[in-house]
Amino acid sequence: MATAAAYRRRGLADLVMRRALEQATRDTGITRTALHATADGYPGYLQLGYRSVEKFALYGAV
């Protein structure tokens, strides 16, 4: 999830995530999801009910 700087702090990412999770539940019946969050996104996902279960490092070419 990414939100343009001019539109942050309006609850848009929260709305999109909640709607996407609701749709996924209706379409497939899933009740659990997992994701990888950046440090910037982490607080928002906590507010959605996600919790940290593991930390990992991502390595790639720069």
Instruction: Kindly name the structural category.
Output: mainly alpha
Give me the strand/helix succession: HH
| Largest sheet geometry | none
Shape annotation: globular
- Helix share bin: 25-40%
Low-confidence stretches: none
Strand content: under 5%
Number of strands: 0
Gyration radius from CA atoms, angstroms:
14 Å
Structure characterization notes:
The protein is mainly alpha-helical and 62 residues long. It has helices at 12-28, 42-47. The longest helix is centred in the first third of the chain and has 17 residues, at 12-28. It is globular and about 40 Å long.
What features would you highlight for this structure?
globular; mainly alpha
SSE layout and pairings?
Blueprint: H1 12-28, H2 42-47
Summarize it.
By secondary structure, the protein is mainly alpha-helical. It is 37% helix and 0% strand. The radius of gyration is 14 Å and the shape is globular.
